[in-house]
Amino acid sequence: MDLSVRNAKAEDAPKLAELMNLAGEGIPAYLWGRMAGPGEDALAFGARRVARTEGGFSYTNTYVAEYDGAMAGMLLGYRLPDPYEAGPLDEIPVVVRPLIELEALVPGSWYINAVATDTAYRGQGVGRRLMDWAEHLAAASGAGVLSLIVAEENARARRLYEKLGYQAIARRQIVPFPRCAHTGDWVLMTKEISPDT
Length: 197
Prior knowledge:
The protein is α+β, with helices and mostly antiparallel strands. 31% of the residues lie in helices and 26% in strands.
C-alpha cells in the first residue's frame, strides 16, 4: 500500500471528527455533546463544526494520511499566534484550561493540536509520516519550534514523540470529565527545527 498525505476536504469531516476525538482523549466529544442540540449525537455535531472553514478544528487546518484512498490518519495543526492571547480563562471550559495555559507558553510555535491513526492502520508508520509532515509544514511556515500536548499516561504516544526529538518542557494537571481516560498531567513537548528561509 502507498501512504500519501493530502489537505483535508469538507466531506472528510465525519471521519475527521472521529479521529480528532480519539486524539483529544475524548475531550472533543465531551464538549461537542454539551453544545449539541437536544438528542443530537456529539460526533455528528462535531463533524458539522469540522466542516466549517473557521475555527481551530476546521478541516482547513487538517491533513489526511491515505492508504490506497482510505483515510488512515489525520493531523490537525497550525501556527500559534504570537503574542498568544487566550482571553479570560473563566470563559473557557474548565477541562480545556490546562491545555490553553500550556499553549500560551509556546507562542509562535507550529502546534500539533491532534494527530491520530485509525485503529485499522496502527503500527504501519502512519503516525510517524504525519509527524514528519508536521515538521515540513512548520519549517515552511517559518516556525523554529513545533509543540504538542500529550497525556503523561499515554506512554505509546510519548515514546514516539521522544524518538522524534521532542522534549517535555511543562505540565498541568488533567481536569477530569465524564469518561476521561487519564489521570495525572498534560505534558507540553517541543522540538526545535530550522525554519525555511
